[in-house]
Design brief:
The structure holds 2 protein chains of 2 kinds. Chain A is an all-alpha fold. Chain A has one domain (about 80-305): MetI-like fold. Chain A is built from 14 helices and 2 strands, in the order ααββαααααααααααα. In chain A, helix 9 packs antiparallel against helix 10. The longest helix of chain A has about 35 residues, at about 80-115. The two termini of chain A are about 40 Å apart. Chain B is α+β, with helices and mostly antiparallel strands. Chain B is about 20% helix and about 35% strand. The longest helix of chain B is centred in the middle third of the chain and has 18 residues, at about 170-185. In chain B, strands 6-7-8-3-9-10 form a 6-stranded mixed β-sheet, with helices on both faces. In chain B, strands 13-12-11-14-20 form a 5-stranded antiparallel β-sheet, with no helix packed on it. In chain B, strands 15-19-16-17-18 form a 5-stranded antiparallel β-sheet, with no helix packed on it. The relative contact order of chain B is 0.12. In chain B, helix 3 crosses helix 4 (about 140-150). Chain B starts with 6 loop residues before the first strand and ends in a 10-residue tail after the last strand. Chain B has 8 helices and 20 strands. Classes of the chains: A mainly alpha, B alpha+beta. The interface between A and B is medium-sized, with 18 and 25 residues. Chain A: Belongs to the binding-protein-dependent transport system permease family. CysTW subfamily. Chain A: InterPro entries: MetI-like, MetI-like_sf. Chain A: It holds the Pfam family BPD_transp_1. Chain A: This is Spermidine/putrescine transport system permease protein. Chain A: One of its GO terms (cellular component) is plasma membrane.
Amino acid sequence: MAITASHAPAELAPPEPPRPRWSASEEASGLALISPTLLYAVSLLALPILIVFAYSFWSQDYLTIDRALTLENYRTALFEPMYQDLLGRSLVISLVVSLVTVAISYPIAWFISFHGGRHKNLWLFLITVPCWTSYLLRVMSWKVILGYQGVLNTGLMSAGITDQPIASLLYNSNAVVITLVHSWAAFAILPIFVSLEKIDRSLIEAARDLGDTRLMSFVRVVLPLSLPGIISALLIVMIPTVGDYVTPKLVGGKDGVMIATAIQAQFGKGANWPLGAALSVTTMIVVSAMAGLTVLALKLVVRKIR
Amino acid sequence: MPDTPMIAIDRVNKFYGIYKALSDVSLNIGAGEFFALLGPSGCGKTTLLRSIAGFDNPSSGDIRIDGHSAIGVPPNLRPTNMVFQSYAIFPHLNVEENVAYGLKRLKLGADEERRRVGAALEQVRLGHLGKRRGHELSGGQRQRVALARALVLRPKVLLLDEPLSALDKKLREEMQAELRSLQRAVGITFVLVTHDQYEALALSDRIAVMFGGRIAQVATPKEIYQHPRTKSVADFLGGMNFLSGRTLGQTASGLTVETEKFGTLTLSLPEERIEVGARATVGIRPERLRLLWDDERAPHELTGKVVNRAYFGETTHLLVGVEGLEKPLSMIETNTHGADDLPIGADIRLAYDPEAFVLLADDPPVERVH
């Protein structure tokens, strides 16, 4: 359009329409409409992060905060072996938890989406039922299941599989993984279910028609098209579990301690808020990097199987 | 038609619960034939097509493709490929990858695969769009990708499920011509499902008209249009004026039927035996009635009044009330004499050819619950 206009004789060029005032534009009214929620989100999301970020460059001596900028906290957070261990373990646990959760949730979501029939909503409803009780109660109930005299051990013994209780079920990182996988399953099933629901069923028929077996049509069509759901499920599980505090505290024992416990200690008994802040920021950055890498790796794998 | 049909459908029934989707369907489709399954929605034509493709299995009966029974054979092992109504273009792949989808399994090697994909895209005139994604294509282009993706596998039978219904009229007509020449070029059997009678007439070598899970008639387009067997077939394929009459007797030249206003007609004998003295329905196509202008004369004439008129550009559709007839006659006139200017209520004379009438059987009762 612009080209024809520039070639037209000058006297035929239409007069420039008067530019409307910005305050009367759609953009302005749109911004005005979202501004209350925008302000709310900014003040409650960005501000705390900024404060934590600022603290991480300060230092503390008992009760007084020294506002002189220093990188000492980051040096401690990154190079102190204890924190390295804790951060490494937290990352491994959250990676394992998110992968296991997705691996367990995918078949469930797939079953509901493809074989749920008329009862899809009932199935989804049932999956959310455990979330109705408190998170704490659900973690505590795993203590009952995994404990030395717990449901699992007594069950195994009465079935004659073992003759004495297995002590290694509770108070280690395995217990943390089992508990977290159970807690987060519902949050992984839902996004995967939604992405499976969006797949046009005729695409699967087309794949079958073009020569794929059932399994191949799943691998070549369903899996790549449900990738957005897998990715969101991974992120939804991975990011919060790195910083989980309650589960390691209750079922983790000595071996299951994660970085959140250390952060809590610095803000509490340790009375070193700047170090706690530096640990938080470090965790945040490292987990973002890990999440990004995982997503990238997944995309590459799916691209390969085409 | 050759001796062994490409597709032989033998007394196929299909139930969904108590709903009978296919009722005792038997049909032979020859090799290299362009065959249309025509009928209103819910008549079972898509179920029949999906049974040939392998997505639905018949409850009873046999389907043989190229001499082999296909019952229990999954879709990936059948020598058929399908063009879906929604085209089912894989959204995560580009055009070339879509077309290559079925070839990957054959392990042809990269060069041969690329050559065949290129040739298939050339065949549907999409050679320049190989890198596009499905959502970047127009309806007609998506349709062509679906065609290329199926044809590249060199199937013995190509199944088309309402492939043109999502296109606008102009593009649909273009694609019809393209489909016809494509079928001639590749020479394989095409089975087309459609609810558009003109599409079926224009494209196919033979048509099966289906109603309520049954096949009502199988014939060439011309045969099925000129000699529809039943009232509903006649009605579904274009307009038809129905008249009731009474059979008088049988002569060497055919069956004589007495009608109101149109006198005694001699009609070719239908397949079914008809009792003398029984009620009979005869029909005449609207275009076989002709307006008479000024002092033009014809051996067989009727007078009537224009009741309604609809202008279609090249033709005008008239409804003409004739005294003594229950329903007004519909007729189609080309707009060369001024039929488009006839006022409603005008007195007209019309001519008919007694040879143009067909005897129509009553429809079998529709069987839904078994």
